[in-house]
Amino acid sequence: MVGLRGGCAAAGRGVLDSAPGVRQDMFSLFFAPISVAWLASASAATFQYFFVRRQLRTSESEKSRYQQAIHWVAHEMRTPLTAIQGSRRNHDPIQIAGGKRQNN
Fold first, then answer.
1. Phi and psi at residue 93, in whole multiples of 5°?
2. SS3 90
3. How many domains does the chain have?
4. What is the DSSP string of 35-88?
5. Residue 1's pLDDT is what?
6. Cα 33 to Cα 73: distance, rounded to the nearest angstrom
7. Domain contains 12
8. What does pTM read for this prediction?
9. Angle at CA 21, nearest 5°, toward 18 and 22?
10. In the chain, which residues have pLDDT < 70?
11. What is the pLDDT of residue 83?
């Protein structure tokens, strides 16, 4: 049985060798461009992933700094306004119980 299989394989190789236009390395010739295209696509995807990741990290840090600056400005504007409102309440005319002012 083993000799028969080996003989069939040898006969098959002999047929391929004698056939016009068929090369022994046809398999590698077919898959070489595919493997090159796959490798190039994988390399480009890897580069794009790390490049986009770096840009995302940069934009997120810029966004965080911007939000902190806006928060600080809003706080600095609200603090004096709150103090002014509180001091205005302290300087209002005397209020009668129940929160109503006397009108003259």
1. -60, 160
2. helix
3. 1
4. HHHHHHHHHHHHHHHHHHHHHHHHHHHHHHHHHHHHHHHHHHHHHHHHHHHHHH
5. 45
6. 59
7. no
8. 0.42
9. 65
10. 1-27, 87-104
11. 74
Quickly count: other Cβ atoms within 10 Å of residue 50's Cβ: 10
Range of the domain at 56: 25-87
Residue 93 lies in a domain: no
Which pair of structure tokens corresponds to residue 78? 């609200």
Residue-wise pLDDT tens digits, 10-23: 444 554 455 555 55
54/61 Cα distance (integer angstroms): 11
- Amino acid 78: pLDDT: 79
Q: Does any domain span residue 95?
A: no
Confirm whether 11 is domain-assigned. Answer: no
Rounded Cα distance between 68 and 74, Å, is 10
Alpha-carbon distance of 39 to 45, in angstroms, equals 10
φ, ψ dihedrals at 98, nearest 5°: 95, -5
